[in-house]
Amino acid sequence: MDFRARIKELCQSKGLTQKDLADKMGISDISLNKTLRGDYPQLQSLERIANALEVDIAELFVRNTPDSEVNGYVKVKGTLYEVHSFEDLEKLLKLK
């Protein structure tokens, strides 16, 4: 599942609009929209989104089920990393 679709799904489940999410993050909805439209999200942005949604960052990529896999790309300090597992995300969180 694409992280953008997952964020939308999480917002809907919590009764939040994109503007509500942006407000919780302390940014404009235009800034959030730019973040979500970008090809590769910054890890810091994903952390802020996860915190605002009160979920673990891994939940932005997949539903939390035992057989779920993470597949995507995340940018940390200007370097693009491929993510295939929750462990990959944990390693990236330690890099920041």
User: Looking at the chains present, what oligomeric state does this protein adopt?
Assistant: single chain
Q: What portion of residues is helical? A: 40-55%
Order of helices and strands: HHHHEEH
**Helical segment count:** 5
CATH classification, class level: Mainly Alpha
Which structural class should the secondary elements be placed in? mainly alpha
Number of strand segments:
2
> Cα-atom Rg, whole angstroms?
13 Å
Low-confidence stretches: none
Structural features, described:
There is one protein chain. The protein has 96 residues and is mainly alpha-helical. The chain has a single domain (3-95), classed as Orthogonal Bundle (434 Repressor (Amino-terminal Domain)). The protein contains five helices and two strands; from the N terminus they run ααααββα. Strands 1-2 form a two-stranded antiparallel ribbon.
What's this model, at a glance?
It contains five helices and two strands. With 96 residues, the chain is mainly alpha-helical. Strands 1-2 form a two-stranded antiparallel ribbon.
